[in-house]
């Protein structure tokens, strides 16, 4: 792409960005609930866009300079408001601004690491396709005006709120090199990345394309979005003998990774719940202790445990291992267990 000629896709993207800056920023709406950026496509659309991207090695990296992308400048028609200030207000919660546009207080969600912050200085704005990545993928041939439109595009999923640490961790890496620690956002993240590259006719290198395809398959599934409703249960009762272990399995067929807020609910009849050790074996064989044994007394009953299982694929056989660690006490009955990931 020459510095004087834009393709229809890029022209449309630049025009949309300009209209959004003139129109959306002028609206003084009430702070919205924390949301992801607009324009994230469906999985089918992202797949089509990924297929259409030109695969090419990155180039001109040594000539990159951040100043070549004028960013966080005052936006025409809005007084002193910048794209950064607008995003903080639009995607924050209970945001208060100064007489100008600068937020002075509020609550912001960093979706990359699933962290909330009330510090304005800790609520940074990340370019999902980093400026240096864009430069090496074709933006080296753009005009300064085109690069400014890209760096301040509030109408596409290019600008995300991120904590300082998440922003620093991401740096200018592509999806072959870095993914958000919050697995629940990974589907939308790669769809947003793909869409921005498509809008601006940026190239994609082979490793990047392979990684994005894998992520679309693993995290988005066939219907798009973050996979939901992955639950199962096992109600086969059994006697828990003294010093013995009973196991009960649940087989799941769900795309993507398990949630950081997964839960296990266990129902057991036993007069000394401290005698009971509960462990969860993931499909890959990893065993986690859900409840360690102790000297506590009282009926076990029904108990729910919260677990971070984001390092595990959801699909496969999950096995609960229940052990009565005390011989010479009392036997118990395993009633049921359920898993939500």
Automatic annotation (TrEMBL):
The P/Homo B domain sits at 221-341
Query: What are the protein's GO molecular function terms?
Result: serine-type endopeptidase activity
Leader peptide range in chain numbering: 1-34
Q: Which domain of life is it from?
A: Bacteria
- Biological process terms in GO annotation: proteolysis
Q: Which UniProt keywords apply?
A: Hydrolase, Protease, Signal
- Report the Pfam families cross-referenced here: GmrSD_C (PF07510), P_proprotein (PF01483)
Fetch the InterPro entries from UniProt.
Galactose-bd-like_sf, GmrSD_C, P_dom, TAT_signal
Q: What is the lineage of its organism?
A: Bacteria, Bacillati, Actinomycetota, Actinomycetes, Glycomycetales
Origin species, per record, is: Glycomyces artemisiae
- What is the official name of this protein in its record? Uncharacterized protein DUF1524
């Amino acid at each position: 792409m020459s510095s004087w000629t834009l393709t229809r896709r890029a022209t449309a993207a630049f025009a949309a960005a300009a209209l959004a800056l003139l129109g959306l920023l002028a609206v003084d709406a009430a702070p919205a609930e924390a949301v992801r950026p607009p324009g994230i496509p469906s999985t089918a659309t992202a797949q089509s866009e990924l297929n259409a991207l030109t695969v090419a090695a990155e180039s001109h990296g040594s000539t990159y300079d951040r100043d070549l992308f004028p960013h966080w400048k005052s936006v025409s028609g809005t007084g002193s408001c910048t794209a950064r200030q607008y995003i903080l207000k639009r995607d924050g919660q209970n945001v208060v601004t100064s007489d100008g546009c600068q937020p002075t207080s509020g609550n912001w969600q960093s979706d990359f690491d699933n962290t909330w912050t009330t510090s304005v200085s800790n609520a940074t704005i990340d370019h999902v396709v980093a400026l240096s990545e864009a430069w090496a993928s074709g933006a080296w041939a753009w005009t300064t005006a085109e690069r400014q439109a890209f760096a301040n595009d509030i109408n596409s999923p290019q600008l995300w709120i991120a904590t300082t640490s998440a922003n620093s961790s991401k740096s200018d890496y592509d999806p072959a090199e870095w993914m958000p620690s919050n697995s629940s956002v990974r589907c939308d993240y790669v769809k947003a990345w793909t869409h921005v590259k498509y809008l601006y006719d940026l190239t994609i290198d082979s490793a990047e394309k392979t990684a994005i395809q894998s992520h679309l398959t693993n995290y988005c599934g066939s219907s798009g979005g973050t996979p939901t409703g992955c639950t199962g249960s096992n109600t086969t009762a059994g006697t828990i003998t003294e010093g013995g272990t009973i196991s009960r399995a649940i087989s799941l067929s769900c795309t993507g990774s398990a949630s950081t807020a997964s839960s296990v609910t266990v129902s057991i009849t036993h007069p000394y719940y401290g005698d009971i050790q509960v462990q969860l074996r993931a499909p890959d064989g990893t065993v986690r202790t859900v409840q360690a044994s102790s000297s506590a007394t009282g009926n076990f009953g029904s108990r729910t445990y919260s677990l971070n299982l984001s390092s595990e694929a959801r699909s496969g056989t999950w096995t609960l291992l229940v052990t009565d660690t005390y011989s010479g006490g009392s036997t118990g009955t395993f009633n049921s267990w359920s898993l939500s990931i």
